[in-house]
Amino acid sequence: MKSKRPLKVLIAKAGLDGHERGALVVAMGLREAGLEVVYTGIRNTPEQIVASAIQENVDAIGLSSLSGGHMAQFQRVIEVLIQEKVKGVLVFAGGIIPDEDVKRLRKLGIKAVFGPGSSIASILAFLRKNLK
Amino acid sequence: MTEPQEKPGRFPFTRGIYPTMYRERLWTMRQYAGFGTAAETNRRYQYLLAHGQTGLSMAFDLPTQIGYDSDDPLARGEVGRVGVAISSLADMERVFKGIPLDQVSTSMTINATAPILLALYLVVANQQGVPWSKLNGTVQNDILKEYSARGTYIFPPTPSLRLVADIVEFCAKEVPGWNTISVGGYHMREAGCTAAQEIAFTLADGIAYVQTCIERGLAVDSFAPRIAFFFNCHSNFFEEVAKFRAARRLWAHILREKFGAKNERSMVLRFHTQTAGSTLTAQQPDNNIVRTTLEALAAVLGGTQSLHTNGKDEGSVIPTEESALLALRTQQIIAHESGVTTEPDPLGGSYHVESLTDRLEQQARDQLHKIDNLGGMLKAIESGYVRREIYRAASKHQQAVEAGEKIIVGVNEYVSDQPLKAKSQPVDPRLEPRRRRELAALRKKRNAGKVKQCLATLEKAANSSENLMPVLVDCVKSHVTLGEICRVLRTVFGEHRPSHSV
Questions:
Q1: Considering CB atoms only, which of B63, B316, B401 is closest to A16?
Q2: Are residues B74 and A16, on separate chains, in Cβ contact within 8 Å?
Q3: ipTM of the complex model
Q4: pLDDT band per the 50, 70, 90 thresholds, residue B108
């Protein structure tokens, strides 16, 4: 059903961190590749991110973090998604995220974590593969 | 081409702000550092002071930067993470316990809440019996670049500019040794803009501050010498050297011709430099030592007044002690072994560097002209123009890297299988609950009537045009917290809501 329209992705920054270069470059790159991208800016609460995802009916949510708040923030996003009974939305992340946290985030249900130096092409390939 | 008569230490200071530069005095090696709690920060400062350092650098956590107390729900997960958490006078007292404020200079990397942090510092000075005239230090107090990059703004640009000017005006009278604004291009460059844009956007922010203060009725020569700058030093070696030279020349002309400054100290562009964190790679991290060395050398050849060299791991984590030491040693080797300090502006006269300087100056002038046509920097920021320009450049860079047009060693060329390794830096999980308890105790213990009265006075003052600094000093003295002050100011000024359009 979703395959008719272009893939729709929400890119969001959770928490108070304002470093948005990574998030914006990914958002712009995905849009250039033909995806529909919603960027919600900095300082979103997990609740706001999930509300936007529901309202925009997105296929995937990309979470970005640089300043170390990712565990608390991303975990909360997953909790709220479950709470709101949101199903079938792919969640991925990017930013400065240490290896051991990557493992923990994967366990929480975050499908992939893109570290520094990742290409837009690799994110695109990941999305296309997982959203078929 | 350059005017052949340009000399180091002479207008327009293209070749450096002093006639002899490092031959007489080296740049200040100032490494930025931040720690979780007030007590830890105090211990670190005591250690540094015992080892002969006199300049302290203060990094704050995000809640402190954005005006939330440590016990605010929005602070969850962020307390003490990227710097020290300061919510009340008790925290500031703890940071500077046993540190005589007349014997140190303190550089605070703080913007939206700079007036509050400065007020806290002043009250601690009072308690120590140190007159404000004996205080030395800096507040970054450069809110405009926060709208363009990094994002630690609270209020809309216009009331924010008022707060900037409140500090400038107040310090000119009461704290004459204080550096009131450090106009930064660093963050915009990290966010992706070009060298020419870094000059233009930084100087445009500087122009907006000078204009605001002049509109306030201050004489340009009474405050301009207290404005300093903070630049990035990126990877393109000669372009960076030329950038510093062009920025100096341009600022000197702007101050003299646009603002009628008479005092040469007003025209001189003094600046701190940090090597570019965004050029560091997580892949093959040892390569970063080489990158930082080249960038630091360019900053020195460009005539910086102080320098932070990044640790090789600084792109991903707060540097380990070992990498922080190596970063400092890098500066020391440039200073004492390389021989580049013997002549001021040693690249001056090189055809390549002089023509690059002229070209960057011209490109920056064109960009400044564009900003003028948009109605000035405030308008350019409010309309999202500056942000768009920065992120367009960032996106272009990413495309060039992915297309292989731009080579990043270890990332898109000369790649090895060496896995990425970034250790997590766990903040003590007991910190946030402890901070909540401390603040609950404080709110119980203090004089509630006095607090209410202070906040009412603050609200009234914020609604008028009076200088808020004296009011803020009274507030923090009565143990009103940073979050409480900001809540009042948020109601009066509103909050900045950027457009997110990409």
A1: B63
A2: yes
A3: 0.92
A4: very high
Rounded to the nearest integer, the mean pLDDT of chain A is 93
Model confidence band, residue B88 (pLDDT cutoffs 50, 70, 90): very high
Q: Do B190 and A31 touch (CB under 8 A)?
A: no
Supply B417's token pair. 């299988």
Q: Which domains does chain A have, with CATH numbers?
A: 8-130 (3.40.50.280)
Interface contact B66, partner A, CB < 8 A: yes
How far does B152 lie from chain A, in Å, by closest CA? Answer: 6
Angle at B398 between CA B61 and CA A127, to 5 degrees: 85
Contact between chains at B76 and A21 (C-beta distance less than 8 A): no
Q: Do B423 and A98 touch (CB under 8 A)?
A: yes
B424 contact A CB<8A: yes
Which region holds residue B126: left if phi is over 0, alpha if psi is between -120 and 50, else beta?
Answer: alpha
All structural domains of chain B, each given as residue ranges with its CATH number in brackets, are: 21-402 (3.20.20.240), 431-493 (no CATH)
**Confidence at residue A1, expressed as pLDDT on a 0 to 100 scale:** 47
Residue of A nearest to B415 (CA): A117
pLDDT band at B32 (very low <50, low <70, confident <90, very high): confident
| Substitution target from B62, B64, B152, B154 for chain A, most A beta carbons within 10 A | B62
Q: How far apart are CA B73 and CA B79, in angstroms?
A: 11
Instruction: Region of B25 please: left (phi>0), alpha (psi -120 to 50) or beta.
Output: beta
Q: What is the pLDDT of residues A58-76, one digit of tens each?
A: 999 999 998 888 888 999 9
Chain A interface mutation, best of B68, B109, B283, B398, highest count of A Cβ atoms under 10 Å = B398
E-strand stretches of B92-215:
105-108, 136-139, 178-179, 181-184
The residue to which tokens 């890098």 are assigned: B330
Under the banding of pLDDT at 50, 70 and 90, the label for residue B137 is: very high
Q: Which of A3-12, B44-53, B289-298, B453-462 has the lowest mean pLDDT?
A: B44-53
Give me the residue label for tokens 């020349």.
Answer: B249
> Is residue A29 within 8 angstroms of chain B, CB to CB?
yes
Measured distance CA(A124)–CA(B463) in Å, rounded:
50
CB atoms within 10 A of CB B358: 17
pTM of the model: 0.94
